[in-house]
Amino acid sequence: PVRDRVGVxxxxxxxxxxxxxxxxxxxxxxxxxxxxxxxxxxxxxxxxEVRDLADEVPGRHDQGGWSQxxxxxxxxxxxxxxxxxxxxxxxxxxxxxxFAHLVLAGPGEAHRELEGLLHEYLRxxxxxxxSLPMTASLEEIRTRALEIEEGLEREQxxxxxxxxxxxxxxxxxxxxxEETLGALSEGRVGTLVVGLDLAxxxxxxxxxxxxxxxASACPTCGGPMREVPDVVEVAxxxxxxxxxxxxTVTADERLERLGGIGALLRF
Length: 267
Known about the structure:
Elements: H1 15-23, E1 27-32, E2 36-43, E3 46-54, H2 68-96, E4 101-106, H3 110-115, H4 120-123, E5 126-131, H5 138-169, E6 173-175, H6 177-185, E7 189-195, E8 202-205, E9 211-212, E10 225-228, H7 231-241, E11 245-249, H8 253-257, E12 261-265
Parallel strand pairs: 1-4, 4-5, 7-11
Antiparallel strand pairs: 1-2, 2-3, 6-12, 7-12, 8-9, 8-10
């Protein structure tokens, strides 16, 4: 859900929407056994079953007179062909619809064998293996997909803050609102890292675009700075306009200790 937030200003505050889209990237869940497969796409809490595949795998009663070993090889070959069929369907789905993450699931070991048959592009997107029945409902799929998406976003946020800490230690990053606004105004920011709930009044110079924590005389051009109710919102919009990456962090104690905002610098 999107948090309640009220703001008044000349531009839309898109931080909540941006954070929502970051958290819920498209995810594909493949529910697989040795004869059937169900493919789902999930994003923003919505789940769609997009493919239903079935391949006939012979049983022992189909192979009268065959040796047990030969019969087992025949069954294994059909199972492998089925999994290759599923792998091809997943690649086609990724090519046509696109998804950021892939989860492989099923009641047995077929989903683990499937991973080795996937195209390299898809193997790089495998995030988890789950034990699920082939009859799993859309609601169960939705719940498990949301859990995975949220966990992945928390991991990514932790990595982002870790990179920020490393950049600060090596002189390639800044932390705190005043330092970050200064670097952004000077065009030195490559990636802006900002806490979702951070908000603070400040100032913006309409002459040169300088941002500051106070609406005083502009330190760049000397002109007056206009007071704004939330300079963080203005900074996020300015970062997008200047081609910076923006990483919104929902909750991280390390970022809070840094002042709730920071930046990785271009130079």
